Amino acid sequence: MHDNYKNSYIVTRKELVSLSVYNVGFQKCEPHYQWGPGIRDHYLIHYVISGSGFYRVNRQTYALHEGDTFLVYPNLEVVYYADGGDPWEYAWVGFTGSDASMILTATDFSPDHPCIQNTPMGESIRRQILHIYDARGNEFQHAVEMTGHLYTMLALFMHGSNRNDSQDSANNYVQKGIEYISANYSYAITVEDIADYVGVSRSHLFRSFETVLHQSPKEYLTDFRMKQACYLLEHSQLSVTAIANSLGFDNSLYFSKTFHKQKGISPKQYREANKHKSS
Asked: H or E segment at 168?
């Protein structure tokens, strides 16, 4: 059929650690058009502009129509396909980053409920996806603009959420914890320091991080530092010792061991392998 179309854009470099657009596009599908079965390595939101289709995940099939939204979680096998008589048209955005999981837990999406029927502010969400598409490009300013529209779109899902107070509390504790880590990761901070700043016990902070991010505060802090380490190894001429000091490690040997455990190679090997990125 002549009125089918697909416009998509894939970002080749993801400079931003906290939240980055992975891909974005919109498509009017032909009858029975299908993706999958398969898995994605990132989050992927589809907003149904018109028509109908089906989304299958965790042995459940969801029938979706105009105004509905569905979320694909990383590393979960999914299938989605257009209706035979009234195939759907949808807009999508894929994204990744350390903020993604926390933000999504403040929405009505969950692994048990990956779809939102009659999405509140759906037309505004569609517009933000198109703004992301319009801002596409692989320069750093494009990444910032695309991510700005992505934050706005995710905020719309948060505004329309029916989440309960206990979940909101966990999100708030984690958000404050991340604020502290972002501002102080270059110092030798401890989990107790983070908990003191947030105003909760260490065990309460641990439970909140596990609930929202599925990792402990210590694991998040290490991940955050390692992402900063990768950036400095790629984009600066600092020595490994200077980078270790800049990331709050007591000595460069412990930093190198931690880096090797996470990345499978030493900091020097990582820098050598990624030389081309900073050139």
From this structure: helix 165-184
